[in-house]
Amino acid sequence: MTKLASRSDSLGFAERCKKNLLYIEQAFQSHEDVHPVTQIITSSLGLIVFPWERKADQRLRGTRLYSLDESQWPQWAETKPSKGLGELIHKLRNAIAHGNVSFSSDDRESRTVIVTFKSEDGDWRAAISAYDLRRFFFAFIQLIENEIG
Question: Is the full-model pTM beyond 0.90?
Answer without folding.
Answer: no
